[in-house]
Design a protein that fits this description.
- It contains 8 helices and 12 strands.
- The chain is of the alpha/beta class.
- The strands form 3 sheets. Strands 1, 2, 5, 6 and 7 form a 5-stranded mixed beta sheet that branches.
- The longest helix is centred in the C-terminal third of the chain and has 26 residues.
- The chain starts with a helix and ends in a 10-residue tail after the last helix.
- The structure holds zinc ion.
Length: 301
C-alpha cells in the first residue's frame, strides 16, 4: 500500500484506520502485541495488565500534520526481583517513553534545529514538518549526548559571557581540536583550580593575562606551562603601540612632518539604530545647554 511506502517506520504497528480530522491526517494504529522487554531488567513479557491510547505526532505529509493514535499495552514484568512491576510497551523506531513526537519527527526537528537554531527553525518547521516551539527545539538540542572529549594536554582558558557585561564564566577549549570542552559558571581562580585538579595531565595552559587565571592555573596544575595566547598577545601589543604612538605623535610630527603622513582613516558609515538616534537627538540639546551656561546634562529627555 502507498502509506507503507511513505511511512516505513510504521511497519512495527498495524494500521487500522486513516482519517482526516480538520487539517490533520490521523492514523489509528495498534501494536503487533509481540513480547516486550522490561526497560529495567530486560526480561520479556506478554502478560497484559491493561491497554490505553496515546497520541504521537509524526512527520507532516504534503503540508498536513500527521497524528498517530496508538493503542498500546501495559505489561507485567515477569521478573519477581525487578523493581518495576508494570511497564508500557514501546514501538522500536517509533516511540520513546513519555515522548509525544515520533522518533522520525524528532530526528527531522533535530536536523532543523542544529542547522538553523531555535527561532528560525521553528518558523520553518511550521507547516512543513510540524508546529513546534523554539524552546522545544532547544530542548531537543540540549538532550543530545555530549561529544567524547579525548585526552587533554593543551587547553585554552578565557572568560565567557553568559550576559554581556553582567555575568561571566570560564570557557575551556581543547587547543588540539579547537573545540570547547567545558563551561564553568564563574570566572575565578578557584573555579579554574578545581577544574584543573579534576583533569590531571594538562601540560600547557594557554590564557590571557588575567591574574586570577594565572593563580588558578598555578594552584590547579602547578606542573603545567602557562603561555599567553596569540590573540591576547597581539591585542595587548596593539594597545601598547597605539598608546606610545599617541603620546609621541606631536614630537614625531615636529621633527619631520613630511615623512610622517597621517594614517588614512576609512570613511565610516553613519551609525544607525536607537542609540545613535538618541545621541543625535540629544547633541543639539547639550550644545544649547552648554551655551546657556549649564555644565551637565540634567533635565534631558
Ligand atoms: Zn523488570
Amino acid at each position: 500500500m502507498l502509506w507503507q511506502l511513505m511511512f516505513p517506520h510504521l511497519s512495527g504497528v498495524c494500521v487500522v484506520g486513516v482519517s482526516r480530522v480538520g487539517p490533520t491526517i490521523r492514523f489509528d494504529v495498534v501494536t503487533r502485541e509481540n513480547p516486550q522487554p522490561c526497560p529495567v531488567c530486560g526480561v520479556v513479557s506478554s502478560r497484559v495488565h491493561s491497554r490505553y491510547s496515546r497520541e504521537v505526532t509524526d512527520v507532516a505529509v504534503a503540508g498536513r500534520e500527521v497524528l498517530l493514535r496508538l493503542g498500546v499495552r501495559r505489561l507485567f514484568c515477569g521478573n519477581n526481583g525487578c523493581e518495576r512491576r508494570i511497564f508500557a510497551e514501546q514501538v522500536a523506531g517509533l516511540t520513546v517513553r513519555y515522548g509525544r513526537r515520533s522518533l522520525p519527527l524528532r530526528y527531522v526537528l533535530r536536523r532543523f534545529a542544529l542547522a538553523l537554531g531555535g527561532r528560525p527553525a521553528a518558523r520553518l518547521c511550521a507547516g512543513v514538518v510540524s508546529a513546534v516551539s523554539r524552546m522545544t527545539l532547544l530542548r531537543i538540542i540540549r538532550a543530545l549526548p555530549q561529544p567524547e572529549v579525548g585526552e587533554l594536554t593543551v587547553v585554552g582558558v578565557d572568560e565567557f559571557a553568559f550576559r554581556m557585561g553582567r555575568n561571566y564564566g570560564t570557557i575551556l577549549v581543547d587547543m588540539a581540536t579547537r573545540r570547547p570542552v567545558d563551561l564553568l559558571p564563574e570566572a575565578s581562580s578557584d573555579a579554574l583550580a578545581v577544574w584543573l585538579t579534576d583533569h590531571p595531565g594538562i601540560e600547557v595552559i594557554c590564557r590571557d593575562r588575567a591574574g586570577y587565571f594565572a593563580d588558578g592555573a598555578r594552584r590547579g596544575a602547578p606542573a603545567a606551562v602557562q603561555v599567553a595566547d596569540r590573540w591576547h598577545l597581539l591585542a595587548n601589543l596593539t594597545t601598547a603601540v597605539e598608546r606610545v604612538l599617541g603620546r609621541k605623535r606631536s614630537c614625531l610630527n615636529g621633527r619631520d612632518p613630511d615623512r610622517i603622513p597621517a594614517l588614512p582613516i576609512p570613511p565610516a558609515d553613519p551609525p544607525d539604530g536607537p542609540l545613535a538616534q538618541r545621541i543625535t537627538r540629544r547633541h543639539p540639546q547639550i550644545q544649547q545647554m552648554l551655551a546657556s551656561g549649564l555644565d551637565d546634562q540634567r533635565g534631558l529627555a
